[in-house]
User: What shape does this take?
Amino acid sequence: MKQTLVLLFFLLAQTSFGQKKYKEALSNARTQILKKEYAQALPYLEKVIQLKPKVAENYYLKGLCHFEQEQYTEAIKSFSLATEKDASKWLYFKKKADAEYNSEAYQEAEQSYTKALDLEKTKKNDTLYQYRGDCFLKMKKYTEAIRDYDKAIELNDKNPQIFYDRAYMHVQLQHSEQACSDYQKAHELGFKKAEKEAYELLKCKWAKKAYPKDNTFIEVSKVETEIFTGAIVVSKGLIYKKLEVSSEKNNSYITQAVFAFGDEFIIKVDSPQGFRTDEEGKIHIGAGFSVLENDKVLGSVEDLFGESAEGIEPTYLKNLKLTLKFSPPLEKGKKYLLKARFFDKLSNAEITWDMPFVMADKTSESNSINSSVAVLGNNVETKSTKNIKFGDLEVFHQNNKLKDKILSKDNFYTIILKNKENLGSNVLYQYKWVDARTGLVSSEKTGETLAQGKGMQINLAVQSPQKVGKYILWLSLVDKQNAEKIWTMSSVWEIE
Assistant: This one.
């Protein structure tokens, strides 16, 4: 009896020691797996399997370590042993199928995914249907693949990969309409290459041919003011002959940035050049705009030509035109900002247009335009309505007449416009200084003045910018008694 008790105690001690070694080895294996040190975990798993060869999870963990090291043959062996020890765990069959798929054993993988689907109790695992569909895809069983992708999408319609793969199945079955729809959905969900494939394989209406964009930074190459509206136009890498704003309805010039609701007007850039060409020698142009009130965007369109699939030949590009009209919720009498742009879709070249404007009862426009360049001095451009003219322009500082176009920073000067014709004595004026390198407005002012002295000349006090550099001075005069009488000028000055 005593010997029996001693033997029983020895066996219990052995069992307790073995259990301790098993737990320690399993803990070390799990720690290495959490650290993604899969190679280091394997010796511990060999030990736990030796100590407890009937536990299915140990084979599953070993298979996982082989799988993460892309040792798929070894992974399949371990996962297979896990499923033999416990055939009730759907995850064991799923991982076995993953390893079989990566080993290009697609038929075996399809069978393992099917077993996993049979065991998965919620029947809401879209991934299992997606992956089994992938197996059918590889085996060119397109109808079966679509059936599984349908089920996966029914469970999860936010996965772009499933739409993309189903689209390709429809392509193989010549279901063009369904394929275009699936490609578009994949693209909307963020799968960018879906658009390129939709265009190249099917010429889907929504898709456009994708070309690589040159994202090289482009500096400002030109800044000017549109002479009538005072809009600031900044060009980066593009050149053109001239700008204008005209009325769509009356084929007349817009003479101030004043618009009535519903009146269409056109922003036009003549003879633009500098667009990058694709490998077919075509250019791709975008155009967009936004309307702001105190920096708050009230409405915008990123690209009016966004749905255009084809480029155009450069020789066909005579001008760029953007037709716009304003409507509520804009309010009469309020000041807003229109930001418009023409841009190259293949580079960062662009022309931007910033125009403060006011809503009114009537759009400011005229068919009677008189324009001249450099008649009042070096590089002075003028435009007017109703044949308004000035015979001379002089600039004074403390009674000293300036002989060149150089001003001191932050100083007051007097601009004298002499020998006016067809402009009343009571004049509303507006001027602004625009940085010729950046297009930013340095300062601006509006006011009212009276023509006086010999020849009823106009004297205007103008304050120069506070910083040195090259600036554009834009000046607009409006007859207070007749708003259709407008005279404007634009000229470039150096500030020292």
User: Anything to note?
Assistant: The first helix runs from residue 2 to 34.
